[in-house]
């Protein structure tokens, strides 16, 4: 199939970021705002206070920002996120399906309901986010940045970032205290990683996303980019 949109026609204006009230998502939102994009934030309703504060922080950078609360596992909530973004900010040019959770224990300890929640958020949530963002980008016919290889004819690139041990609340565990107290120690131990192996702040992930969003990154597609400090993940 011939390309229907020239890759060089893409100019990012509006980014949607799920799970953006804190951690990696928050840092990505701030970085993309600093890059000149308007931002639509998304997280669950109990994060409203953090979302409101982040909106004001982004506006202080001179960019537009909104927040739309919702559950990424809900098709209706994702539709509302995309539609509200288009209504208030004019388009959807970048979708970062950042929302995700991790299991908090060994397989023998993990409750089936918790497992189902991980699958719902980390798999179904990503699928829904990209499905409806992609539909909007194809409709706009100006290109975009998400993950879905079949969208290449529409100048929509298809990349993923794969974070290693990133210093967010997600890596904290009560057992860290038994392993020296550093956040992420229990996670490293469980994964067989040396406790003195490197970890990093969320801004290292945000910097990679920042580049992938830029027009000149049109030739980088179909990649999973490890941000792991040398840790091999497959």
TrEMBL record:
InterPro entries, per the entry: NAD(P)-bd_dom_sf, SDR, SDR_fam
An annotated Gene Ontology molecular function: 3-oxoacyl-[acyl-carrier-protein] reductase (NADPH) activity
Reactions that this protein is recorded to catalyse: a (3R)-hydroxyacyl-[ACP] + NADP(+) = a 3-oxoacyl-[ACP] + NADPH + H(+)
EC code(s) of this entry: 1.1.1.100
Spans traversing the lipid bilayer: none
Similarity field: Belongs to the short-chain dehydrogenases/reductases (SDR) family.
PANTHER family: 3-OXOACYL-(ACYL-CARRIER-PROTEIN) REDUCTASE, 3-OXOACYL-[ACYL-CARRIER-PROTEIN] REDUCTASE FABG
Name of the protein in question: 3-oxoacyl-[acyl-carrier-protein] reductase
Gene source species: Meripilus lineatus
């Amino acid at each position: 199939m011939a390309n229907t949109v020239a890759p060089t026609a893409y100019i990012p204006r509006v980014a949607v970021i799920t799970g953006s009230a804190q951690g990696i998502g928050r840092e990505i939102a701030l970085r993309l705002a600093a890059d000149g994009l308007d931002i639509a934030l998304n997280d669950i309703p109990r994060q409203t206070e953090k979302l409101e504060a982040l909106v004001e922080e982004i506006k202080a950078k001179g960019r537009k920002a909104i927040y739309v609360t919702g559950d990424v596992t809900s098709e209706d909530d994702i539709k509302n996120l995309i539609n509200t973004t288009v209504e208030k900010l004019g388009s959807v040019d970048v979708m970062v399906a950042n929302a995700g959770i991790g299991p908090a224990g060994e397989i023998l300890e993990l409750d089936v309901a918790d497992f189902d929640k991980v699958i719902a958020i980390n798999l179904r949530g990503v699928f829904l986010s990209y499905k409806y963002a992609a539909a909007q980008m194809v409709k706009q016919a100006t290109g975009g940045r998400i993950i879905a290889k079949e969208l290449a004819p529409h100048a929509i690139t298809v990349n993923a970032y794969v974070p290693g041990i990133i210093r967010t609340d997600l890596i904290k565990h009560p057992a860290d205290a038994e392993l020296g107290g550093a956040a992420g120690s229990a996670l490293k131990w469980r994964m067989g990683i040396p406790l003195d192996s490197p970890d990093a702040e969320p801004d290292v992930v945000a910097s990679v996303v920042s580049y992938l969003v830029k027009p000149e990154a049109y030739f980088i597609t179909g990649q999973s980019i490890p941000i792991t400090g040398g840790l091999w993940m497959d």
